[in-house]
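Annual report, structural modelling task.

Input specification for the carboxymethyl coenzyme *A complex:
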Amino acid sequence: MATKEQAKSKDGAQAEGKAKADGAAAPDGKSSADGALSITDSRTGESYEVEIHDGTIRTMDLRQIKVSEDDFGMMGYDPAFLNTASCRSAITYIDGDAGILQHRGIPIEQLAEQSSYLELAYLLVFGELPTQPQLERWTYDVTHHTFVHEDIKKMNEGYRHDAHPMGMLLASVGALSTFYPQAKDTEDHEERYMAAIRLIAKVPTLAAFAYRHSLGLPYVYPDNELDYSANFLQMLFKMENSFEPDPRLAKALDVLFILHADHEQNCSTNAVRAVGSSDVDPYSAVAAGVAALYGPLHGGANEAVLRMLREIESVDNIPAFLEAVKKREQKLMGFGHRVYKNYDPRARIIKKHVDEVLEVTGENPLLEIATELEKRALDDDFFIERKLYPNVDFYSGLIYEAMRIPTDMFTVIFAIPRTSGWIAQWLEMKDDPEQKIARPRQVYTGKRDQDYVAIAEREGPEKITGPPARRPKLLRRGA
Ligand code: CMC
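The model returned the following structure:
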């Protein structure tokens, strides 16, 4: 693990010892390396051997590569984590080239076909499919924690009538930490279990409250006689006692929940792990995940797809839209993925369910635009060369829209099932002896050793360069 020359030196011995300990800690029990990477540093002519485990090297092993004794040592530079594994995980497996997604080893196609969202949530959290009594206990626990403190309603009343429900969800998930301060004891396994149950149970209620607030409608409380997705639909749509969730729509929503539950180290999961690594309580860590999911490049994409389809307006406008995408004036939302360089398997499953849902709800003209847009993009060299295929968000918005769920709520609905993935990943991180507080390094590119200049002696334009702090033309939304 050290330079051949340094192998007996103190630093080298430490690096070697660490690598061996790492090997011993591998969950598959392998203590020996799969091979080694030989590196020659052209600056010094020194050669190094770096062990390979599971197709990776430890970037800490690069630290021994130095040009001088006082050199900090080499680091890896990987903006946006394009090629860096930040953890070892046994929850979700993706083969992006082959379009494979498995949870705890079980293909997503089988889960979507045969499982239920709550069963999958159990699988993610505990690592095994539940037995019948385990599933009953889990379902009972989740179902009996769906109510939220009345103060959450008061908190919601403070928002403007047109507040985005995702902003409201973000705040209310964070607020849960104030109702359950005991969750701060993250080493207590009972508290962890309760946080998992409470989050999975309450996020649909918080989501539905945000929706009802945006319509100025009274909140509907959970109905614990209904299953998870049917209960969510009744909290959204019930007026007096008149709403009975259509079982076909409840089933379609449950499948969408299954498809969105976890997706290994994506932006929001990484946020949950990074924030959770500070040992904050799980409600605050999951709130970080909600914030990351809000962005249009992540969970916000399903919302953006619908806006894009409406803007395209008719099939005749598709060629012009695709030209604009190729000129980089537009982005084809719902296409492309950091990991999948093939058809996203979730998109394939959703596509099958679109027709079933439309049978219940009636035709949607946007489906024709989406189908034609997909066909033409998949036929176009720009998308072929870049391996851009539909992702999970391309068709999910159409199902939500058919269910009469407003566009602003799409990302909120994504957050409901993703909560179980976030919790499972948080729990895995807590039990991983190799994890510490997440703290990346940087390559500093700024000035060094500048002298402070007194204000009277500074030169520069009279006005601040850059955008004005306040833009008066925008509609003011508050004080
Ligand atoms: N439309 C047009 N061009 C695209 C798109 C797109 N949707 N996605 C990627 N490209 C181009 C990109 O411009 C680049 O071209 P070039 O090499 O000529 O510069 C090339 O494809 C590679 O793209 P990238 O930006 O390096 O890929 P990335 O891995 O950094 O980004 C992505 C992945 C999902 C952010 C991106 O594909 C994207 O913005 N897609 C649209 C938003 C979207 O649908 N997001 C949902 C993702 S799935 C849900 C989830 O898991 O969150």
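The beta strands are 35-40, 47-52, 92-95, 100-103, 106-107.
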